[in-house]
Structures are given as C-alpha cells and as structure tokens.
Amino acid sequence: MPDPRNVIILGSGPAGLTAAIYSARANLAPLVLEGELSSTSDQPGGQLMLTTEVENFPGFVDGIQGPELMANFRAQAARFGTEFVQERATRVDMSSRPFKVWTGDPSAPEPSYTAHAVIVATGARSLMLDIEAERRLLGHGLSTCATCDGFFFRGHEIAVVGGGDSAIEEAIFLTKFADRVTIVHRRGELRASKIMQERAFKNDKITFLWHHTVDDLVGEKSLEGAVVRDVRTGETHVLPVTGLFVAIGHRPNSDLFTDLLDMDEAGYLKTVPGRSLTNVVGVFACGDVQDHTYRQAITAAGSGCMAAIDAERWLEAVGDAPETINETPTEW
Amino acid sequence: MGTTITLTDATFDEEVKGASEAVVVDFWAEWCGPCKLIAPVLDEIAAEQAGKVRIAKLNVDENPELARRFDVMSIPTLIVFKDGEAKKRLVGAKGKGQLLEELAEFL
Known about the structure:
The complex is a heterodimer of chains A (about 325) and B (about 110).
Chain A: E1 4-10, H1 14-25, E2 31-33, E3 53-54, E4 64-65, H2 66-79, E5 83-85, E6 89-93, E7 99-103, E8 113-120, E9 124-126, H3 133-137, E10 142-143, H4 146-149, E11 157-161, H5 165-174, E12 180-184, H6 194-202, E13 206-209, E14 212-218, E15 225-230, E16 236-239, E17 243-246, E18 250-252, E19 283-285, H7 297-318
Parallel strand pairs in A: 1-2, 1-8, 2-5, 8-19, 10-17, 11-12, 11-17, 12-13
Antiparallel strand pairs in A: 3-4, 6-7, 7-8, 9-18, 14-15, 15-16
Chain B: E1 5-7, H1 12-17, E2 22-28, H2 33-48, E3 53-59, H3 64-69, E4 77-82, E5 85-91, H4 96-103
C-alpha cells in the first residue's frame, strides 16, 4: 500500500486550490487530484475554466479571465510545494484510516494513494438536457462551452437554454458572434442577478422565449433546430437555430461519496454549520460540492481555507501531523 | 522529428498529405481554455510517439478556411489524418490516457 500522505485534496477549483495554498504553507505537502481534461465544467481548474471575464473576484479591479485566475491559484499553490496529478478519484474508502483513494481502475486491489486527511472539493458540473440527440450533436452545433465555440457561430441564429447567471453571461458573450441569440427559459422570469438581467434586456441581439423547454434536437450531422415545448399549453414547435448552448444549472459532484458521506436530497455534502467537517472524522468538504446557497468563486475559496485549517488542527490533534507542521495562526 | 508542427491554410495539404505517419491536427485558438490544457499533453504525445504520429497545430482564428472545410464547430477538435484522409475526429478536451486509447489504432 502506498505511504500515507498528510492530506489529499480532491478537486482543483477555487476551493481545492485555496485548501492547497494553505495546507502547503503549513508544510503539509498536499497532493491535489486535479481531475481529468474535458470540455465540460468538470475539469482541472473547475467551472471558471469555461468562463471569460470574472468581475467580482476581489483584488482584480478591472476583472480577470477565468482560466487566468485559476492558473494563478495553481501557481500559488505550487510555489509552496503542492503536488498535482491530473487524475480523477474513482473510488474512496473512508471506513478506516489512513483513508484510501483510487484513480483509474476502481477495482484494483491496492489504492493509488492513502492519506491521513481528505479534503473534498470536487465542485459541481453543468447539467445537460439528458436527451438522446445530445450525443449525436455535441460538437456539431450543441455546445457546453460558449467561450470555446462561440466563434464558430458568427452570423448564425442560436439559442441558450436556461435563466440563471451563467445562461445570461453566455448569451451576452455569444452576441459578439451570432446575429441573434434566443434565451429559452422554462419560467416567465430570470433567476439571474439584476445586473446580468439588465445587460440582457438592453442587448438588441437577445430575444426571450419564456415558458419553454427544449424537448428534442433536429439535424442529423449538424444542428438544424430545437424542438421547444410551451410548458403552459404543451404545444411544441421548432426553433430554427444552428447553435444551442445549455446552461440549465448544476449538480454537485458527490456521486463518489454515496453511502460514505452525509448529503442532502440534491446531493450536496453536509458539513457542520460554519465549519468544513463532514460526518466522517478527518474528511473535510469545501466549495460547491457542499454549498447550494452561494456558489461563488470567493465563497469556494473561503471555504477551502477553512477546510485546510480544520485539517491542520485535526492532524495535530490526532498526532498524524508531521513534526515540521507550521500551523496557520488563528485564535482557536 | 518528435516536435509539434504548426499548420496554416497554405501549408496544410503539403504537410498532411505528404506525411507517411498519421497526423493529428489540433484545431485550437488562444481564447479556448480547454485547448490550452490539452496543448502540453499533445506535446508529450508528439515526443513519445515520434515516428508513428505527428501532432500539427492549426489556429482557427488565423486559418478559418480549414476550420470551415472540415466543419469544425467546437474546439478543441482533433482530426486524425492517414494517407491524406481524415480517419477519425475527437471533439472536446481529453486526458492523456484517453487520447492514447483513441489514437491506439494509429500508433
């Protein structure tokens, strides 16, 4: 079995990398399982990797690009000795200590890593429409990444599904390329923040299709239209668009912890109020995987700091901390 | 050999059709986050699989003709050419293990 590490951090968004910065500065030499490359929000760096301008992260007066911000987080964590691997945990065993973590084949007899403390920062991923046509048309008009694919829709008529901040942000971004962007939303009003709503309402290229959902997609080789249904009457019609961007909300990445960690009905991990402690002693959770209320980069980062400090204290308390630990000073 | 080459609208046919090994063309752009993440992975593959496969980068901003010609609507897109013909298309960023699996038939 591999030698136990002080702490393993699962996830590399703002929460995981802040936990890494703190625990690395405390001389805990953390290992971060960054996740695997993908074009969805479930990838190294997390959801900000698919955004453009981040305007509300403190310290960046003029805003910063999401991927650049995450590159900075990572470099700062690396500076203090964080170790990174581009792997995703496929199985965890929290029944005894040290905790065991598998990457790759989950049925391998030996775990890939073991650790005295685990910080769960696996975040959340974007929901898809969950219809069959999605597989066929992904990358052929259907997209999960407006910043990657917007460019290819110059002069097209396209649609964005959803009514939250991410849907509106994508729609506004896509007006740089597309002739017209229709926002398809199942309700009669947006969930997005007022500032984003105002920007969308002011934008001449954006129109709204209220009270509609997307039922199916038309097109064999590339997208030709979306079958939309009026949720009030049940009537359907085809919206002729060559591009469709899906931003209908998020789900916490907590499947790995089913029956291991307490979670609510929506799958968010439960933590002790005001702390990062889960129901398993020595396992801490931070960021979007445990936050269904705020879900901001800055709250994720803040909770990552909490998890790192909680882990430091706990390692000291149970005598598993290395002698060289350099605790983050706080009033305790 | 073993290094990553850069393609343009002008050099594409010569570089891709003239190659004896498989050529993986990486359609990418500066503004695409996932493209930047796979770039170092592709560099590693280029070095490790030298002689079997070439990695060729194609910037879609600078070479829109080729993106259109191959119906690229999402990046990163990798198209594998062998004997001058497009044999396989991979859409979206993938990790090294998964990429090597997808490319196995050409290695």
